[in-house]
Amino acid sequence: xxxxxxxxxxxxxxxxxxxxxxxxxxxxxxxxxxxxxxxxxxxxxxxxxxxxxxxxxxxxxxxxxxxxxxxxxxxxxxxxxxxxxxxxxxxxxxxxxxxxxxxxxxxxxxxxxxxxxxxxxxxxxxxxxxxxxxxxxxxxxxxxxxxxxxxxxxxxxxxxxxxxxxxxxxxxxxxxxxxxxxxxxxxxxxxxxxxxxxxxxxxxxxxxxxxxxxxxxxxxxxxxxxxxxxxxxxxxxxxxxxxxxxxxxxxxxxxxxxxxxxx
Length: 263
Fold this sequence. Notes:
The chain is of the alpha+beta class.
């Protein structure tokens, strides 16, 4: 591993995003390279300083008292006496059963939402890790060509999907080639593009997270991601490209998938 490769992976090491093999490589290089060791030590010191910093200030009690004193006092309310009815046995157990069912449904919905959010975050982290790995020398492409008719058939038999390979060179996004990659333990197709000096990985799989008809966006470790589903396929675009330009890339891919407009 050289210094350029190590520099790319230092942040991922600090954030605990590297697998054991890559983590050992970075640690071993930093041990023998004074420059990288100094940079790694600086990153760790900055992370520790931020974790230990006291960034929360507590408002004094006097401030709360002044605010409460300045608020208008609520007008006195006249409450009519309530008539209480003696509940029957049937109404009691019926209400109890309905309340229990509602609570169970709400709990199940909450658990499902949390699970889906965690799953999406895990997939997003794997996508970024795969993108970072691809930036190492010799890892970016398995088939290197700007000919879409060469890249598309190369994936035959390697993945379970036929990823669309769209030439956007005239639109400012140069097709570089393709690569077989693995995300969440599953083989996926990666179609590689470039915008100036910025690499864009477009991962395509039959299922790579929960389906999203509309494009969702997020940022992980400084990389911008766009995720959407179309035609039974899941798409994840990731790059250090500006978020607006990555959005433009996604729009052009979507437009090419639906030349006559979405159905």
